[in-house]
Every structure is written in C-alpha cells, then in structure tokens.
Q: What sequence folds into this?
C-alpha cells in the first residue's frame, strides 16, 4: 500500500494548537464595535433579554435556550465548548453567543457553532464581525488547517449565510442528531480551508470597512 505523502513543512503552523485552544477562555476579540468575550454567568441577564427578542427558543433549528434555562445553558457551555458572549459595543448589550468546539489537534481543525443572535441583530454587521473575528483567530492564532460548521438541514437561513461567507458545502450527514423536540435531523456540513481564508478575509474586511 502506498504511504500517504506528508504535508510540506512550510504549510504546517508553528503555533502550539492545544496551548492556544486552552487559552480561549481568556481571549477577548473585537472589531467594528463588536466584542466577543468568554461567556460567563455575568452575561445571564443580557442573554436572557437577547433570547426573548424573537422568542428564539421556540425555533426548532436553533440552540437558543428558553429564558428560564439561560443560566443552565451558560454552565453547560463551559463544559462542552469555548463559548463567547457577543457584545454590541455601541450599546453595551449582549446580543447573542457563539463558540468554538470540537478542536482536533491532529488535523488542526475547529468547529464554529452554537451561534444565535437576538432577532433585531439578524442581517446586521454583528454576524459579519463575529465571523471575521472567529475565523481570523482560528486561522491566524490557532493555526487551523480547516474550520467546520454544522447546520440543521432545515436551517436554510444559516446555510445561505455560510455560502455568502465563502464556506464550501461538504455534504449531508443523515439522521445525525436529535432536535430539542425529539425529532431526528440531517446535518449539512460546511468547511473553509486555510488557503481560502485570505480571500474571505479581504471580502469581510471590505464589508466591515476595516
């Protein structure tokens, strides 16, 4: 059997991936008056207000909790992912949350997900700035080779946003996860490679006026 060809050393990141991942609970990122800071119980009241804007917990395809479950949601996030509160610096309000999860040191991969924003923040600079900050950190600080996203097959709004971003659709995982109502969902998987980041970064920076 032919042995796989190793990647050239010049494309391998020099950063310590796991060390950089372990620092994520202390990382604060900001651009275009949007700030991502580690999600803690100090954000509970703001996140509860955010989830009520549009009654997001009633949407089948989101991970948003009911208002009374926000504290538990934050505590659970601390054990399963590297979660951020999304702050609109023009108002100081918590407008949502997003996260890195499932870091893979061997591949140098991380997933971005558990993302939701108050309804009044949809299709604003908020999501554009968040994706810019997360992708820049993933590729330029963590040294990722690839970033992945998973979306419910019914969440066509999220899929359209990822395609506008420049992510590539990899395929569909059938009968992949259980929704909050107990039904089984298919998952659409997207990815972005390090080699694709420069073009995406330039487009995002132009949109944000950076």
A:
């Amino acid at each position: 059997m032919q042995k796989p060809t190793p990647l050239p050393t010049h494309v391998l990141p020099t950063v310590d991936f796991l060390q950089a991942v372990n620092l994520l609970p202390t990382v604060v990122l900001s651009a275009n008056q949007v700030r991502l800071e580690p999600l803690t119980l100090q954000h509970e009241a703001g996140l509860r207000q955010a989830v009520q804007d549009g009654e997001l917990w009633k949407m089948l395809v989101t991970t948003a909790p009911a208002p009374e479950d926000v504290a538990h949601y934050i505590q659970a996030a601390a054990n399963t992912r590297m979660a951020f509160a999304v702050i609109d610096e023009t108002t100081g309000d918590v407008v949502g949350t997003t996260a890195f999860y499932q870091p893979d040191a061997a591949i140098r991969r991380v997933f971005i997900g558990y993302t939701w924003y108050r309804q009044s923040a949809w299709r604003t600079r908020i999501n554009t700035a968040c994706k810019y900050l997360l992708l820049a950190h993933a590729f330029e600080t963590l040294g990722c080779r690839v970033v992945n996203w998973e979306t419910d097959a019914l969440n066509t709004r999220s899929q359209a946003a990822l395609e506008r971003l420049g992510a590539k659709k990899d395929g569909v995982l059938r009968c992949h996860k259980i929704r909050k109502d107990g039904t089984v969902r298919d998952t659409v998987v997207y990815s972005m490679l390090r080699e694709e980041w420069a073009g995406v970064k330039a487009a995002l920076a132009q949109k944000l006026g950076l």
Q: What stands out?
A: Strands lie at 29-31, 34-38, 82-88, 93-104, 109-117, 146-152, 168-178, 184-193.
